Amino acid sequence: MFRSDCHAAPQRAADFSSTLPSVACVALSRRACLGGGLAALALLAGCKPATVPFKGIDLTGAQYGRDFRLRDADGRERTLADFKGQALMVFFGFTQCPDVCPTALTRALEIRELLGADGARLAVAFITIDPERDTAQVLKAYVSAFDPGFVALRGDEAQTAEVAREFKVFYKKVPTGASYTMDHSAITYVFDPEGRLRVAFRHEQDAQDCAADLRQILGAA
Questions:
Q1: Secondary structure, 3-state, the chain
Q2: Which carries the bigger pLDDT value, residue 219 or residue 32?
Q3: Which CATH number fits the domain 70-219, given the four candidates 3.40.50.2300, 3.40.718.10, 3.40.30.10, 3.90.550.10?
Q4: What is the pLDDT of residue 48?
Q5: Residue 189 bridge partners (DSSP)
Q6: Across residues 164-173, what is the average pLDDT?
Q7: For residue 78, which phi and psi values (nearest 5 degrees)?
Q8: Which of 87, 81, 60 is nearest to 69 (CA)?
């Protein structure tokens, strides 16, 4: 069985385990902020437009997901610093995943298309939670089938467990007769071009909502 949402979905930067809050929008008074003369007075008084909330889970200021140190399919060690200047989407999964992982990577392609010219400023990294079967060659072939520009990352068993802890990712080997499958979280993490964790996309979010959040992140860079 595959989880179509995170085992413990992050709420805010400092609280990973509690229930997701509803997003509250800050409404500016029409009387204070609409109209030429009144708008000028509001500006003098320090009235500023409210920040548009993310459609995903806002992780700005999170104290986890701060970095990773894994090898790509060509054997090069990669960290967050390698993606500086780009927004980065990070997803944890495995190549034999029948549904959740292909859906997430297909959505990543759709997001890039929706971003238009800004799609070139979006990097996508797929981190395997099944290094036993997902060799470098297997990973490279898998991600390239979606987009040759996607980056596949892997570590040994200990490194995989360490990076999963850092990102609060759940995964577990589940026996299936003579073989096994993997139960795992299905959250996509997004970093801004400065390497700061900013938002998490739920598995059920559509590409349009994700692209809207990425436009904010890229526009603020």
A1: CCCCCCCCCCCECCECCCCCCCCCCCCCCHHHHCCHHHHHHHHHCCCCCCCCCCCCEECCCCCCCCCCCEEECCCCEECHHHHCCCEEEEEEECCCCCCHHHHHHHHHHHHHHHCHHHHHHEEEEEEECCCCCCCHHHHHHHHHHHCCCCEEEECCHHHHHHHHHHCCCCEEEEEECCEEEEEECCCEEEECCCCCEEEEECCCCCHHHHHHHHHHHHHCC
A2: 219
A3: 3.40.30.10
A4: 41
A5: 90, 200
A6: 97
A7: -125, 145
A8: 81
37: tokens are 């003369």
Q: What is the token pair recorded at 153?
A: 């990352």
Q: Which residue has the tokens 């996607």?
A: 150
Taking residues 166-184, what's their average pLDDT? Answer: 96
C-alpha distance across the termini of the chain, in Å? 39
171-174 long-range Cβ contacts below 8 angstroms, 24+ apart: 171/92, 171/129, 174/1
